[in-house]
Specification:
It is found in: Membrane. Helices cover 84% and strands 0% of the residues. It has 2 domains: 134 residues, no CATH class; 173 residues. By secondary structure, the chain is an all-alpha fold. Helix 5 crosses helix 7.
Length: 353
């Protein structure tokens, strides 16, 4: 057996056992690496001013935890406590109210009655209630699992920031990638991921703050529901409706029609039309302008939009990061093939001449 074959077998064996060893952490490692790529400009800025890679990595990890994972942790913890404090009588009252509302809708919803009769005739309220109770019991477990994964992402993110350049240089030497190819790949992926990450964070915080202010005005927890709206806004088309519609129906059910109409009109006009339709594209455009100085590195906004949708559909919450990353990586590989083809054609023309 030739030595290179033996080494290849050893490498394949080692790769298989490495996969078995780190399989439970692959998602966290991937997300941490992509987040490190997305925020590489922040890391460079901190290194320049702190004069220490270790300190810069530590500060950037704290910033990520504070801006991205702390709100999620607060939301999940608060939701878990609220759901666990629900009493059986409360759930029973909700069940009775829903049944009465379906059978005898209030005057302001009478025009929906024909639709209620057709679409809700097979609705089993008892089954929905049982499902809600079962889900409430699982929320604690889900929250604990997410917080554990968030902690792992932060830890891997720190090491990616601290050792990232060394790892990338080593991989370039191993796969024998040319300097031009490595620069193109890292530039394209970093540019797209930076735009996606900062756009998601900025728009979610902006729309969440708008909803939180409105909902706190009528007496609800503005911080909690602002965070919920921010993450709901990441769901295309129906994101905001998932938040303001239940509030509107609940306010109607307790007789506060003024609050109900305020929430509905404010959410539609101020957030969905003004903020989402007019202000959000301006934010994304400014982020593109600040981060992407090279026109060749820009990825069409529609491609990014559909990549986020596909990612959310396939991978769930983390898909909003994985979808654009996979798409950008694929398109960059196509550019590498295109560059190689053009180079071969130039060489062929020189030989023929």
């Amino acid at each position: 057996m030739k030595p290179q074959y033996f080494i290849a077998i050893l490498f394949a064996t080692a790769l298989y056992w490495m996969y078995l060893l780190y399989a439970p952490y692959l998602m966290a490692i991937t997300i941490a690496a992509l987040l490190a790529i997305s925020t590489s400009n922040i890391q460079n800025y901190l290194e320049k001013h702190l004069h220490s890679k270790l300190a810069a990595s530590f500060v950037s990890s704290l910033l990520l935890a504070a801006l991205f994972f702390a709100p999620l942790g607060y939301f999940l913890t608060t939701l878990t406590l609220q759901l666990n404090s629900l009493e059986a009588d409360t759930i029973k009252r909700v069940e009775i109210y829903i049944s009465n509302m379906i059978d005898n809708p209030p005057s302001y919803l009478l025009f929906f009655k024909p639709y209620f009769a057709d679409s809700l005739k097979d609705l089993d309220v008892n089954a929905l209630t049982a499902g809600a109770i079962k889900f409430a019991g699982k929320v604690g477990t889900i929250s604990a699992g997410f917080l554990k994964n968030a902690f792992l992402v932060i830890v891997f993110y720190f090491f990616a920031q601290y050792n990232g350049s060394t790892i990338v240089s080593f991989l370039k030497r191993v796969v024998q990638m040319s300097s031009e190819d490595g620069t193109l790949l890292s530039r394209e992926l970093s540019s797209v991921m930076s735009v996606v990450f900062y756009s998601i964070i900025t728009t979610a915080m902006f729309e969440g703050a708008l909803f939180g202010l409105a909902i706190s005005y009528i007496g609800y927890n503005g911080l909690l529901f602002g965070i919920m709206y921010g993450f709901a806004s990441l769901i295309p088309v129906v994101g905001g409706i998932l938040m303001w519609l239940p509030f509107m129906l609940y306010e109607f059910s307790i007789g506060n029609s003024t609050n109900a109409w305020f929430i509905a009109i404010y959410s539609i006009v101020m957030i969905s039309i003004i903020a989402d339709t007019f202000i959000k594209p301006i934010i994304i455009k400014e982020i593109n302008k600040k981060l992407l100085n090279d026109d060749d590195a820009k990825l069409n906004e529609l491609v990014i939009f559909f990549a986020i949708i596909a990612g959310l559909t396939t991978f769930g919450f983390w898909g909003m990061i994985l979808g654009p990353a996979i798409t950008a990586f694929f398109l960059t590989i196509l550019k590498l093939f295109e560059a190689r083809t053009a180079e071969c054609e130039r060489k062929q023309i020189v030989v023929e001449d």
